[in-house]
Amino acid sequence: MYLIIESRDSFGEKSSEKVSCQKEVTSKGIKYSYKNEHGDCKIFIFKDMVQITRKGVINSAQIFKDGKTTFFHYQTPYTSTKFTLKTTEMKQKKEGLFLSYEIYDGEEKVNDIEVAIKEVWN
């Protein structure tokens, strides 16, 4: 199976990637595991939250809760920073997910991001 992951941010940057992934369904939720240029990535979808982790060139663990504020560390070979993440919209569907969120460095908003994730079979 594959995931199509599309994103756009407040700077006009858009990306779209199709990644081969493994899907695991449990009583707690769904886990997608895949590799891309950033390293090993996992997306955990639970009833009321989503967690996206990356380990490799970029290391981070973001937690998304609709209408809530969370915190995450973003680490690369060049920087290690703690950010605030405000989830403004989270829609879970049978075979996909939509996230809209804001990232803050202290009190300063540094980006608005939208991400759409969809399962595909070819």
UniProtKB/TrEMBL annotation:
UniProt-listed Pfam families: DUF1934
Domain of life according to the entry: Bacteria
InterPro entries, per the entry: Calycin, DUF1934
Protein name: DUF1934 domain-containing protein
Organism this protein belongs to: Ilyobacter polytropus (strain ATCC 51220 / DSM 2926 / LMG 16218 / CuHBu1)
Native organism taxonomy: Bacteria, Fusobacteriati, Fusobacteriota, Fusobacteriia, Fusobacteriales
